[in-house]
Amino acid sequence: MGADSDNSQHGPANAVSRRLRVFINYRKDDAWAEALLLYDRLAARFGSESVFLDTRNLKPGMNWLEEIKSQRDSCGVLLALIGAHWISILRARDHAAIVKPAEDYVRFEIQHALRPNSGIRVIPVLLGDDVPFSSELLPRSLRELAKIEAAQIRRKLFDEDVARLIGRLEAIEGEPGPSPEAAAPVRPGPVFSVAPIRPDKTGLAAPRPDAAQCELVLQQMVDEGNLVVFLGSRLTAGQTGPPQGPGLLPDAREIAAGLAQRFGVKPPGLDLPEVAQYVYVTRGKPDLYRTLRQLLTVDCEPGPVHQFLARFPGMLEEHGLEKRYQLIVSTNFDTALEQAFDREQEPYDLAVYMASGPDRGRFVYFPSDGAPEPVVDPNSYAELSIGEEYELERTLIVKIHGAVDGAVGGYRWKENYVITEDNYIDYLSRSPIESLVPTQILGKLRESHCLFLGYPVRDWNLRVFLKRIWEGSIGARSWAVGPAPNALEKDFWAQSNVELYAADLGDYVALLQERLIARSHERRDVSAET
After folding, report:
1. Is the pLDDT of residue 334 over 80?
2. Residue 28 CB partners (closer than 8 Å, separation 6+)
3. Per-residue b/e over 110-124, b at no fewer than 16 CB within 10 Å?
4. For 223, what's the count of Cα atoms within 13 Å in the CB-facing half-sphere?
5. Which secondary structure element, helix H or strand E, spans residue 257, and what is its range?
6. What's the CATH fold of domain 19-180?
7. What end-to-end distance do the CA atoms of the chain give, in Å?
8. How many CA within 13 A on the CB side of residue 262?
9. How far apart are CA 405 and CA 411, in angstroms?
10. Does residue 267 have a cis peptide bond before it, meaning omega lies within 30 degrees of 0?
11. Which of 511, 519, 505, 506 is nearest to 318 (CA)?
């Protein structure tokens, strides 16, 4: 095995020690008895309140990560119990998921704890004398586990091996944590403005979109009515607002940078879920949501992408083409897209995921001509403006990660964000996906081509959502456009059967509009000749 990295670094010498909190991860068909025996020994040494085992002290609905992270004076350790059948069960579950997708929570817990900034130590514990366990036997997402020095518990040497493991945990518990001075968050200052982050122009790994690519997209948008548009968190990257008056809404990177600056999050450059998780744990929910509200309710103008989508049905009608409506899936919390549609007086329906309130954990449907309606049973709900052949009667905007505080038709919501790491774990671990996403939306997604705009698939939270929907690869030819993509992002998209292009999004929608006008002229010329 590799060196004992334990997935974290030691703190400074003048820091304070922390109370140990241990989570026992195991498979019931592989290590149920050993897990119970180990729990009893660890609980006797560290206290039952510090050791988590699902059959002993985890109640339904309890979030084990939140339990570990909520204590600033604690350090979390995940013990991954690996018995003789652990690898074979892992492979069998992977194979079965191809036909019938299902969450593997044991694997999911380990993967999350192995993330570089999780704050959780991981120790593999091999149960037996000759347990198959090496990086070659593990899927890519778990290979880091084999780099950590494993503990071993053998039946004939059970007492000695458990004592050795307890000694290792005691050493972790005794390590100094961050000093109070270093851990203290920065005192809040006045409301700040977030400076735009310039995209990196180096390492481009994708071609520029051209008229041919735009023609392929418009064939689905105009001729077939079979395109779903995904709006990611980088719609305004690289753009600047007017020198006076309203500016552009901050994207996810800029929000993360602003939160990090205000609350003293280090190191800089973390993604938004990590920064939001830090603020939530160290400062509390009110500070996080108050700051988000300040950022997302500023006086900002809809960007070129919002304006293009809002004008699209009217442009078709203006050029004598059949009106087509889009399903638009947004990962953003702001109301810029809705503002653009309102200004164009273009009707649209709205479906918002509720992360808080009485309808927490489900979507609420807001039709443009009716009363709001919670989607209680996503599997059977059929009231959305989507026909049997998945054609849309009106534009449907779906906000999959919640929305900034607001109200529609008398229905009000507040603090409605899927934004912290724990929010995403709760949101993405729901199984099956049909229990979360209304069946009409799910069917439309799976039967359509897709256009991803400013959607940074390298962000794990966005990538997992796509995997849950399509179970791997998107069936229909699809496209992604974003500023300055790199080779890693190209690989991520290629795995999902998506062609990646590099472009400023304002320039790209202008190119789409130009090609749309050219198409209408070409058709008029053909009609005149005949």
Report:
1. yes
2. none
3. bbbbbeeebbbbbbb
4. 12
5. helix 252-263
6. Rossmann fold (3.40.50)
7. 76
8. 26
9. 11
10. yes
11. 519
Beta bridge partners of 349: 396
Tell me which residue of 375, 373, 372, 371 sits closest to 361, measured CA to CA: 375
- 3-class DSSP assignment, residue 83: coil
* DSSP conformational letter for 12: -
Question: Measured between alpha carbons, how far is residue 367 from residues 80, 252, 344, 356 in Å?
Answer: 47, 28, 17, 21
3-class secondary structure for 440-491? HHHHHHHCCEEEEECCCCCCHHHHHHHHHHHCCCCCCCEEEEECCCCHHHHH
Instruction: Read off the pLDDT of each residue in 425-449 and give the average, rounded to a whole number.
Output: 84
What pairing do the DSSP bridges indicate for beta strands 247-248 and 300-301?
parallel
List phi, psi (to 5°) of 100.
-130, 95
Q: At what angle do helices 211-218 and 505-529 cross, to 10 degrees?
A: 70
Two tokens at 25? 């991860």
Q: How far apart are CA 172 and CA 246, in angstroms?
A: 52
177's tokens = 């944590």
**Residue 510: phi, psi to the nearest 5?**
-65, -40
H-type helices in 115-195, by residue range?
158-174, 180-183
What residues does 411 pair with on adjacent strands?
408
For the cut 70, the answer to whether the pLDDT of residue 101 exceeds it is: no
Q: Between β-strands 227-231 and 416-417, what pairing exists: parallel, antiparallel or unpaired?
A: unpaired
At 497 the three-state DSSP class reads coil
Q: Which residues contact 131 (CB under 8 A, 6 or more apart)?
A: 82, 83, 84, 86
User: Distance between CA 467 and CA 490 in Å, rounded?
Assistant: 16
Q: How far apart are CA 257 and CA 250, in angstroms?
A: 10
The secondary element (H helix, E strand) that includes residue 350 is strand 348-354
Q: Are 268 and 274 in contact (CB under 8 A)?
A: no
pTM assigned to the model: 0.60
Instruction: Answer whether 37's CB lies under 8 Å from 66's CB.
Output: no
Q: Give the containing element (helix H, strand E) for 385.
A: none
Over residues 368-380, mean pLDDT: 89
Q: For 184-239, where are the alpha helices, taking DSSP H only?
A: 211-218
On the question of a common fold for 19-180 and 211-249+298-525, the answer reads: yes
Q: Are strands 227-231 and 449-453 parallel, antiparallel or unpaired?
A: parallel
The packing angle between helices 421-428 and 272-282, to 10°, is 110
Is the CB of residue 87 less than 8 Å from the CB of residue 37? no
Neighbour-count burial of 143, counting CB atoms closer than 10 A to its CB (0-12 exposed, 13-18 middle, 19+ buried): middle
Would you place residue 249 in the very low, low, confident or very high pLDDT band (cuts 50, 70, 90)?
Answer: low
| Neighbouring-strand partners of residue 482 | 502
Q: Which amino acid is at 394?
A: R
Rounded distance, CA 321 to CA 223, Å? 9
The whole-number pLDDT of residue 73 equals 39
* Alpha carbons 185 and 110: distance in angstroms, whole number: 29
Q: Where are the domains of the chain?
A: 19-180, 211-249+298-525
Class of domain 211-249+298-525: alpha beta
